[in-house]
Amino acid sequence: MLNKLLFVFLLGFLLLSLKDSQISLAKSWPEPIQATSKYASKAGFALGRALFYDPLLSADSSVSCASCHLPYTAFAHVDHPTSHGIADRIGKRNAPGLFNLAWRQNFHWDGGVMHLNSQALNPLTHPDEMGETIEHILLKLKRHQHYPQLFKKVYKQKQIETWMLLDALQQFTISLISKDSFYDKVSRQHASFSEQQQKGFVLFEQHCNSCHTAPLFFSNRFESNGIRIDSTDLGRFNITALEADKGKFRVPTLRNISHSFPYMHDGRYKSLKEVMAHYGQQLQLNDKQQKDLIAFLKTLTDTTFLMNPQFQYHTLNQKP
Amino acid sequence: MPYLFFVLFALSGLFTFAQQQVKLTWNNQPFELDSTYLLHDTLQFQLSELKCYIQAVPQKGNNAIHLIDAADPETWQWQDHATALQVGIRAEIQTAGVFTGALDPINGMYWAWNTGFISVKCVGEFNNLKTGQTQSFEFHLGGYQAPFACIMAIPGSGTILNCDLQTWFGHILETPPLGWKIMQPSKASLMLFELFTSSLSYAK
Q1: pLDDT attached to residue A11
Q2: What would the mean pLDDT of A72-89 be, rounded to a whole number?
Q3: Which of A159, A260, B31, B55 could anchor a disulfide with A97, C-beta 3.0 to 4.6 Å?
């Protein structure tokens, strides 16, 4: 009897230790950089989500934020190499996936924007994207059947102002957190890599992790990865005017990479195979090693996140 | 009791606000948007937009930032306790996110592509009466990062600030060509901004 009790006690202790280690793994993520809204609430999240999916925000009410940032493709755009705006206008940069944004120091491929709450200004007003003015968006929101009430519920004031529009969008986008991939399950010791994935992981740690650093699989740096640079887009140089920054772009996340094609700042590579062919030459990786690396990269797909109904389109009156 | 008066007198200095004013002129005459003005007898200028940020220095209390808009006479005067001014907004504010009031992005002075504010925005065109050629121009002069930060103190102090646009454009035409579409921080942007600031003076 005493032995049985001792066994149960030890088993309990072991399970608790395991649970603790899971918590500590979860805590191993760095502290977020972007501040959470002081108006953060369920209603604020729902308002931000409604705005994110509403084409009303574009000049001709034809495209929404979600037109280039679809939930099933990790909030990236997979139809074109670069963004697709109003009147079939095509932008010059690939629309990146939107998730884990709280850990980003700056936004856009050149890092020109420092705050998540001001990031949306660019796509909203850019003539090749949503092509609208803030003034006109606010006017449309004020005249809308539902939005005035929804804004008042979150911000406790009757007037809809620019900062409220941006804050609501931020409340939604900052909540897009992806941390439940197969890789994460392996980290939590709930699963284990196949032999090929394990080999890919070893290669990843050798060649990729210094820039695409786990657990976020990006870094807040700007790098040139050896691709041919188009002189019409010099990346970080456009912001800093420093010679050393010519042709440098931000290091993107590799989480959900299998779902956020095409790749690079201009979407020049359609598949992971093409990306690996580029790096394979640089890092002298043979075909088998490239395949192993791709197998590992696919473990970064977080289907819980991709299919999360909370992040998908809801009608304005639908509960969060 | 006398101490109380002294304390109240000293404190009142902190809350004294003076009426301040910007006078927009062209060759000492009141300036108006969309009117035509002559320079060097041959160049006919017309401005459709002119805005600039003025900030009190040193900053006390709230940040006392004023957006001067040539289209809105109400913005040409304000109350402030400081009589020394700078053109442009200090970097700590430029990098602190989205604000309301004079700093609301709705005013068209906040760059969407690059964190920071435009300090001086000027849009217009000029006709060369001799050749019949028209040249449009658009200047967005701003940013807070060295070496092209467009933030500069206006020498001296006073309550009436004169901004003579003929002086500014006269200086622009005297310098080697800088370009007529200058819309991001650069050497040319800084040069135009310095010329703008040098065309400002306090009334004596």
Answers
A1: 47
A2: 90
A3: A260
In a domain, B94, yes or no: yes
Range of the domain at B152: 14-202
pLDDT per position as a tens digit, A252-307: 999 999 999 999 999 999 999 999 999 999 999 999 999 999 999 999 999 999 99
Q: Which whole number is the average pLDDT over A94-123? A: 96
Task: Fill in the DSSP letter of residue A37.
Answer: P
| Total of domains in chain B | 1
The stretches in chain B having pLDDT less than 50 are: none
- B97 closest CB neighbour out of A108, A117, A161: A117
Which residues span the domain enclosing A206?
182-301
Listing DSSP states for A107-141 in one string gives BSTT--B--HHHHTHHHHH-TTTT---HHHHHHHH
Query: Is residue B5, in this structure, part of any structural domain at all?
Result: no
Same domain? A168 vs A193: no
Beta bridge partners of A70: A76
Rounded CA separation B41/B57 (Å):
39
How many domains is chain A built from?
A: 2
Give the contacts of B33 (CB within 8 A, at least 6 positions apart): B47, B48, B49, B50, B70, B71
pLDDT of residue A3: 59
Answer yes or no: do A84 and A139 share one domain: yes
Residue A118 has its nearest CB partner, among B115, B145, B184, at: B115
Structure confidence at residue A5 (pLDDT): 56
Most confidently modeled range among A4-8, A21-25, B26-30 = B26-30
* Half-sphere CA count of B85, side-chain side, radius 13 A: 29
Of the candidates A122, A238, A241, the beta carbon closest to that of B112 is on A122
Closest by CA to B122, choosing from B28, B31, B21, B201, is: B31
- The chain A residues in contact with chain B (CB within 8 A) are 106, 108, 112-115, 117-118, 121-122, 124-126, 134-135, 138, 161-163, 166-167, 238-241
Same domain, A246 and A119: no
Question: Domain holding A65: CATH number?
Answer: 1.10.760.10
